[in-house]
Write a structure and sequence with these properties.
431 residues; Udp-n-acetylmuramoylalanyl-d-glutamate--2,6- Diaminopimelate Ligase, Chain: A, domain 1; UDP-N-acetylmuramoyl-L-alanine:D-glutamate ligase; Protein-Tyrosine Phosphatase, Chain A; nine-stranded mixed beta sheet; 19 strands; 32% helix; 21% strand
Length: 431
């Protein structure tokens, strides 16, 4: 069955679903397979729930009724989903901005979305649907009225970003940074650079534009050969600024000639300065006024446990618990260390996907914590159980929550961070 035939149906029923639990009437159901499930088994259920068509790769599950005529049988459902997304992508002649990096890409995507939406009809990755399934689903949600598209690309091994670029065909791209994330899959920091650099490679080959953080020297050789580069940072860039802190919130004093302005955000941590500058540079590059950029960035409110500052009674909670790796952990702790709070408590969950480096990186983090004095430090789960440390340790966030509730802290600042697997936000959630 050709992708053109499937796309003809898609134009009539432009909504795709891969999970019958979320399926709505007239969705096209793609029966994906995983290690522990086979979506082909749920084809009948999909039609019972109102699916308009289904794409399957196992004839055994073809319905034995009239719905069999509404099934596209393909060799590989996932590949067909990706090919359909690319076919849809080719219908647009608008900017497609790809964002990747080890830390902060979702926040950057949200900030860029806020800025571009001031002037353009903009579609962007929802949440963090940034993998081999999320990227095509994101593209298929872009409607024909789109004037801008932002595609977040996550990766935990090499050749992954290369695949996403073939699907999304970005015209512009941004690598936030290359840190110690997914070391197990990438095989070390140089592997991270090579993997993230696949975005630059694609844009180089296709005469695209990159937005490059001038404060990260290692991005310079990675971008060698790219003809169109727009830089941002604290110095020696097309768009420059100085980080400013106000009650734990980061902002930027933009110092580029004729573009002087001060932006105050609701983002916690000086490490978000680069994300502010990236969105400013992208906004100005697409002719959005400074006033509208300022308004968009100042009105943005972080959600989903990303750089959130929460007031809980007399306490200040810094909740940054959506993800964690050695680079982002050090940045968060360093920022907390520099913040002007009289009483400081740190509750951090372990890091994942570090491979053979895991124990070493967890021990390094402990040594870094020991360089400062804290009221309390609580370590939760994973390889924190296997390293030497003088701190409290709990197996999971539920145990940490019980300890937290007993302390009855007042006038205290509390940093909560950890990998998604440990759900550290539970520490402060009410029942």
């Amino acid at each position: 069955m050709s992708i053109e035939n499937i796309y003809t149906v898609f134009t009539k029923f432009p909504s795709v679903q891969t999970d019958t639990r979320k399926l709505k009437k007239d969705d096209i159901y793609f029966a994906l397979k995983g290690e522990n499930f086979d979506g082909n088994q749920f084809v009948k259920q999909a039609f019972d729930l109102g699916a308009s068509y289904a794409v399957i790769d196992n004839r055994t599950y073809l319905p034995d009724d009239e719905n069999s005529a509404k099934c596209f049988v393909v060799d590989d459902t996932l590949q067909s989903l990706q090919e359909l997304a690319n076919f849809h992508r080719k219908q647009f002649s608008i900017p497609f901005i790809a964002i990747t990096g080890s830390n902060g890409k979702t926040t950057t995507k949200e900030l860029v979305m806020s800025v571009l939406s001031q002037k353009y009809i903009t579609y962007a990755t929802e949440g963090n649907l940034n993998n081999h399934i999320g990227v095509p689903l994101t593209i298929l949600k872009i409607k024909m009225d789109a004037e801008m598209a932002i595609i977040e690309m996550g990766a935990n091994h090499q050749k992954e970003i290369e695949l996403y670029c073939k699907i999304a065909e970005p015209t512009h791209g941004l690598i936030n940074n290359c840190g110690k994330a997914h070391l197990e899959g990438f095989g070390g920091i140089e592997g991270v650079k090579k993997g993230k650099g696949e975005l630059y490679d694609y844009l180089k080959q296709n005469d695209g534009v990159i937005f490059r953080n001038a404060d990260l020297d290692y991005l310079v050789p990675m971008s060698d050969g790219v003809n169109h580069i727009i830089t941002y940072g604290s110095a020696n860039a097309d768009f420059t600024g100085i980080a400013i802190m106000n009650d734990g919130m980061v902002g930027a004093a933009i110092t580029t000639p004729r573009n002087e302005c001060t932006i105050k955000t609701q983002l916690v941590g000086e490490y978000n300065f680069a994300n502010i500058m990236a969105s400013f540079a992208i906004g100005r590059s697409f002719n959005i006024s400074i006033e509208k950029i300022k308004s968009a960035l100042e009105e943005y409110r972080p959600t989903n446990s990303r750089s959130q500052l929460i007031k809980l009674g007399t306490n200040t909670i810094i909740l940054d618990a959506y993800n964690a790796n050695p680079t982002s952990m050090i940045a968060a702790i360093q920022n907390f260390m520099n913040a002007d709070y009289p009483n400081k408590v740190i509750i951090i969950g372990a890091m994942k996907e570090l491979g053979l480096s895991s124990l070493e990186e967890h021990q390094k983090l402990v040594f870094f914590l020991e360089e400062s004095n804290w009221n309390h430090v609580v370590l939760v789960g994973g390889d924190f159980a296997k390293v030497i440390h003088p701190y409290l340790y709990f197996e999971n966030s539920s145990e940490a929550k019980l300890w937290f509730e007993k302390q009855q802290f007042k006038h205290t600042a509390i940093l909560i961070k950890g990998s998604r697997a440990f759900a550290m936000e539970k520490v402060i959630q009410s029942e």
